[in-house]
Design a protein that fits this description.
- The chain is α+β, with helices and mostly antiparallel strands.
- The protein has one domain.
- 15% of the residues lie in helices and 34% in strands.
Amino acid sequence: MKIVKDTVMLILVAGVAVIFILSDLYAQDPPPGMSPMQKPSDARTAKIPIIEKIGPGMFRMGDILISKKFQSVTFPALVNMDKGLLEYLIVRTDGKTHESLLRTQVQPSDLQLAFLLLGFEGTDRPIRGQGDPEKPKGEPVEVTIVINRDGKNINIKAEEWISKKVENVSHDIEKLDWVFTGSVFYNKRFMAQIEGSIVALYHDPVALVDNASVGGESDEIWFVKEGKVPPVGTPVTVTIKNKK
């Protein structure tokens, strides 16, 4: 019975992958606040991923590991900034890298499929646009970064590499309220795939995961915590898991 359920899940996810691909065939200009549509590059064009079962409740989709037991999605990334103002925690390598702490070659459409495989649904009430003062709604998640130091894997909460500046005073962050919103479709285009936005600090309906914390509506307060973040280009592993 368990094998049948896993097979059905894989078939359903593959079907959703086809929808993402077909959505790239149609486009109109986006609403204000979203990037203008261009002919999709190879990085922006979704492809049907190969999903492999590698153990009980464990799946691999390219560089993505999916755990049903821990309700988690894990993928590789690189440190992209070690100082400066942030709007994103993670983007794809051809996304808004000038304002993102990390970058990854993993496709947002593949991450979306991974979350769907785990039963995540996202929100049916996306915020109106970037910087919307409304608190984004979605499923609570935790974001953990793993870095190898002297042969040992060290788990770091994403918040440990971010500071919040209020009235020119930087503050450590104990906890951020991350929510999986699942991005949005606009005129049959999956916008996270088009723009490469994965985890946002500054409210963004396009990102897969948004920041529901106080201050998420501001693009002026989130900074790299200098001295804590390793050099640009350092490889890390990111895990996003269900917080429930």
